[in-house]
Amino acid sequence: MAIILPENFEYVTAGLVSTVWVLLYQTMTVSKHRKAAGVKYPQAYADKAEAEASLAAKKFNCAQRAHQNTLESIPPLYVSALITALKYPIPAAVGLGLWSVSRIAYTAGYTSGDPAKRNTRGAWLGSLSTFGFLLTSTYLVGHTLITKHL
């Protein structure tokens, strides 16, 4: 069985790779803040008292949470982006790129030590991209199922 990918699908692969670079950036950010806060492994977060007493510990918790939030959002992003990309590869590639840029902005804002800043500087683009992928992929799947069975 051969899988035929649409023309321009290579741009989608570039968008997907950009998400891996975002995860690497976040991993390095978490490591940097872990070291600065002195939080030892296997402790996932600084405890509440540490975070209240130390800005470095609070920044570590924020970096860790930004990374965890990204890991939580990657599976639905990948599924809906890949389904979208089968019909609309260029918009999917652009959406993945925007998502990646938004996650960098999200992480930079979050790791300022003020969690409210996580939604500044373009971080909203990630939600817009994910929602766009979800709507488009749902439409494509529904349209295919209806067309096939009518």
TrEMBL record:
Its main location: membrane. One of its GO terms (molecular function) is glutathione peroxidase activity. The chain crosses the membrane at residues 122-142. This is Membrane-associated proteins in eicosanoid and glutathione metabolism. InterPro entries: MAPEG (IPR050997), MAPEG-like_dom_sf (IPR023352), Membr-assoc_MAPEG (IPR001129). It is found in: Membrane. It is a multi-pass membrane protein. Keywords: Membrane, Transmembrane, Transmembrane helix. GO terms for cellular component: endoplasmic reticulum; membrane; nuclear envelope. PANTHER family: GLUTATHIONE S-TRANSFERASE 3, MITOCHONDRIAL, MICROSOMAL GLUTATHIONE S-TRANSFERASE. Pfam families: MAPEG.
